[in-house]
Amino acid sequence: MTTVAEPVLRPHAEQLYATELAALAAADDRPRPPGWLLSPQAVVTYLLGDGDTITPKYIGPRRLMEVAVATLATDRALLLLGVPGTAKTWVSEHLAAAISGDSTLLVQGTAGTPEEAIRYGWNYARLLAEGPSAEAVVPSPLMRAMRTGTIARVEELTRVPSDVQDTLITILSEKTLPIPELNDEVQAVKGFNVIATANDRDRGVNELSSALRRRFNTVVLPVPGTVDEEVDIVSRRVASLGRSLELPEVPDAMAEIRRVVTVFRELREGVTGDGRTKLKSPSGTLSTAEAISVMTSGMALAVHFGDGTVRPADVAAGIRGAVVRDPASDGVIWREYLETVARERDGWRDFYRAAREAE
Question: Is the pTM of this model over 0.90?
């Protein structure tokens, strides 16, 4: 188990939570699938916390995490599906850390992801000098995971071109990666599996073929069900990010966290919390992840340019930046929200003034 030796900006999950993982492994006496560092029950405990020494990494339905972990204990790959900001990447990283102790075998999906990122590439200097050989092969993260019996991650699978996506079919169905140039293949060691994440809301999405989708068990991660649940998620992540960024501790910012979450939820759902006023929804997703970003930025403003207390003026500009993606249409929606909701709501006058000044 690796630990953080230098003050890196963002430690991997297995580094940041090495103590928790070691404690769970030491106390874990339940059966473990081949290649797993923890039993499925201990993995779920790691993700959801135990109310004592193990901190929750995911706040949501326990059954979803049980289904996800049970999937990885079989020969089926796992697809985490959801709108942006539903913690797909976060869950993927922590699953890999808890199961394999290594969350770094990652393919980041983009519109330009080549087939070599999933299969393998070549060291062209050696290829030209020696011809095709095992030493000239540059293994992809999936190839390395197959050889070591660990979890590989594919982020934003639906951003990858369709023909490159289908490179996964043989790997997932046959657990084999052919290397025809060497008349050879790599067979997956027990413990190997794939976690992919995807959403169908972003522009530039490439639908998965039916053949590829059949190779996955799909778990849909929902947006937080209540304001309190979302506030809890945002407050925990903001506190964690503040520590990792070494921001000085600020007084309780719960009031502003609740305000940010309330604004995002009302605009996202198209209705105020009391159900009395219908609202137009902007073009952005206004996800929980964006609320975390707004609050982290607000903390930095309060610490470095204020008196250390997060105030409405510290979050107003961040909220506007998240809401107004299209200046023409979203700008109108934001101003209507300020005039019809924020201006009339008790205790929101400071926020209303700060938001108007930020325009």
Answer: no
